[in-house]
Write a structure and sequence with these properties.
251 residues; alpha/beta; Rossmann fold; six-stranded mixed β-sheet; 8 helices; 9 strands; binds adenosine-5'-triphosphate; zinc; ABC_transporter-like_ATP-bd; Metal ABC transporter ATP-binding protein; Metal_Ion_Import_ABC
Length: 251
């Protein structure tokens, strides 16, 4: 029998995610200073939320973390042992309504090395179906990506971030298009990942969800405006100051 290609989406095996350190991180795009002097520590195995106004640099910060932006300063990912798996759920993506690609095609193209549109091998197919079930998308593997609703697409993106279970999970506004049931599924998944020691870096606008789920929260608007435990940091005054802060401007 072939060894399974992918472990279950969320395995109960104890694991520890990495710590992440941003040291004097800056990002200049054109003449705009997107990030300036970011010093930030994300502890291993914590759920760490990043909040802030539109354009404040949250997605840019995670692009620096993922090695996708030409930043200054240092980003360190300190793994407890050998480097583990990084999962990434990007901000909502649009798909052409006519795109002839099913949910199964899309996920198997992302998680296997096989040419797109070839049916995945049985263990991969089983892992994809399990991940879809975890995000409440059972029975929808044959649907076209272009025919999904925004929330369904978001659930598929979440499923791909879980395959296989990540040790570091980076989420960019994962709840944006989710309905109440989807938000509940998301919260349950984050709880399960936190319980297995995954480090979760989570960009979010829903501050109530951040209060419920996050161990720590950073307020970001070009620089770090606050950083700490949500109950202590998310005071009405801090939130008002953060969201009225004007980020960007010429360097
Ligand atoms: N490739 C780019 N070139 C120039 N400017 C960019 C580029 N990408 C992003 N920006 C600018 O960088 C700033 C920060 O964008 P970013 O997407 O990081 O913000 P954000 O905090 O994630 O915002 P939102 O909450 O709206 O998603 C914005 O002003 C944006 O216009």
């Amino acid at each position: 029998m072939n060894a399974p290609v992918l472990p279950p989406a969320v395995s109960p095996v104890a694991a520890r995610g990495p710590a992440v350190a941003f040291e004097r991180v800056s990002l200049l795009l054109g003449r705009t200073q997107i990030l300036a002097g970011i010093d930030l520590s994300i502890e291993a195995g914590t759920v760490h939320a990043i909040v802030g106004p539109n354009g404040g640099g949250k997605s840019s910060l995670v692009r620096c973390l993922l090695g996708q932006a030409p930043h200054g300063g240092t980003v360190r990912i300190d793994w407890p042992g050998a480097p583990g798996r990084i999962g990434y759920v990007p901000q909502a993506l649009e798909f052409d309504r006519g795109l002839p690609m099913t949910v199964m095609d899309f996920l198997s193209a992302l998680v296997t090395q096989r040419p797109a549109f070839l049916p995945p091998k049985a263990p991969v197919r089983a892992a994809i179906l399990a991940a879809l079930a975890e995000v409440g998308m059972e029975g929808k593997a044959g649907r076209r990506m272009g025919a999904l609703s925004g929330g369904e697409r978001q659930r598929v993106m979440l499923a791909q971030g879980l395959m296989p279970a990540p040790d570091l999970l980076v989420l960019d506004e994962p709840m944006a298009a989710l309905d109440e049931a989807g938000a509940l599924i998301f919260e349950t998944l984050v709880g399960a990942l936190a319980a297995r020691g995954t480090t979760v870096v989570w960009i979010e606008h829903d501050l109530a969800a951040v209060r419920r789920l996050a161990d720590r929260v950073t307020g970001l608007s070009r620089g770090v405006l606050f950083d700490g435990v949500p109950e202590a940091e998310l005071t009405p005054e801090r939130v008002l100051a953060l969201f009225s802060h004007r980020a960007g401007g010429a360097a």
